[in-house]
Amino acid sequence: MIATPNLPTSLAWGHSHEVLFHVNFCDGATMKIKMPKARGTKEDSLQGGSKRAGVYFPEIQARGGAERLALLLALELEKAGWDTFFLTDCDVDPAQLSRDLGADLTGIKFVKLRRLNYSMIRLSEIRRLATDSSFVRQIRGLDFDLFVNAQYKSSLPGCARRNVYYCHFPHRLSNVSNSLQHRAYMGFARIADKILVRRGSASFPATYDEIWANSEFTASHVEERWGRSALTVYPPCESIEPCNKSKTIAVIGRFQAPGDSIPYKAQDVLLDTFSAMTQLQSEGWRLVMVGGSSREGANYLLRLLDDANHLPVDIIADASREQLRQVVGEAAIYWHAQGVGGDKVHHPETQEHFGISTVEAMSAGAIPLVYATAGPAEVVSGVSDLAGWETIEGLKEITTYWAHATSTSIEDMRDKCRARAEQFDEAHFSDRVQRLL
What are the pLDDT digits (tens) for 229-252? Predict the structure, then answer.
């Protein structure tokens, strides 16, 4: 069901001990309920009554790995006996989410936080502060025992008795500016954030009891940027059933040109690489690229389609999950290039932070050939010295090697890939989360 809080100031955020919810059920029925707002201590809450947990992830409509992780975190909380709420800022269809996830979400309460219209505020930091302040007030009013923030690059502070931040990659807490005016503006924003949103805490990471990271690579940068230790909780990865393998190289990732804070999968680099491998093409090899698309990436996708013309290349935008499974299941080789051309020392956010698609390809027995930095290097660790590359020539060499390897070598590699992929499956994720709860 979807619970949408109706939050008049006099009721929810004054001295009232109740919060009014409008609850929408999947069959279209509606009802109003009042939920008591507990005022006890953490110990009081845990000793009696059901424990209440909230998982925060706005804009859940997308169907990526981060969205899947947030929903599975909510399911793990429910499994552990928590009364679980999923906090978002948009309308959702729980039945559709259940179908997409392949899991029953009927025990999760979906709460739509009210997003007030701050479009008249032109300054982006002030607009963010106003939104965060509103969300914090609403979430604190729900009086959670546990709050899990799973949103990428969120600066929302912890809002419960126990607070967990799931970090996809740590953003910088301050930006360097040469402009005196901009430094003054950001200084004012930080003071306002500390007073209005964080309630005096030095930084938003300081409001969290625990930080969980999606990889050891991410955890190391949490330590570097935020000065906090992080526990590694690898994302849950789906196992894909292998099909009859064909001479196919698969590439999975959103079609998006490089830009600030945008994961760039470098499909253009890989397309140029394959285009130059004419011998491989003459032997019947194909390149298949699958990924989501957006209005912002439309020109990039059109350029890829134009460059792929007259080549043995298929580009499938906005493929269904079944189409993706089919492509990955049939692929003999998997290419991954996020991070190529990026500065991994000064701008580590340009690198792949983990690499769910790489794990899924490995589970299907595709041989992963990944840009050997960050998350993908961590994922293929121990599988083979011939699974990573650092230059385009290196990629060509190991691709040619595996395209002509003996069946014995290939089957041995596939067995190692599948065994490594199992270490990142839902069962391992569940065990790790349950231990931490």
Answer: 999 999 999 899 998 999 999 999
39's tokens: 């005022």
Architecture of domain 246-424: 3-Layer(aba) Sandwich (3.40)
Two domains, one topology: 2-233 and 246-424: yes
Domain borders along the chain are 2-233, 246-424
User: Exposed, middle or buried, 428 (CB in 10 Å: 0-12/13-18/19+)?
Assistant: middle
Under 8 Å between Cβ of 302 and 274: no
Containing 317, the helix (H) or strand (E) segment is strand 313-317
Which class is 2-233 in CATH?
Answer: alpha beta
Q: What long-range pairs does 427-430 form, CB within 8 A, spacing at least 24?
A: 428/234, 428/236, 429/72, 429/76, 429/233, 429/234, 429/235, 429/236, 430/76, 430/79, 430/236
Q: H/E/C letters for each residue in 129-142?
A: HHHHHHHHHHHHHC
pTM of the entire structure? 0.80
The SS3 of residue 333 is strand
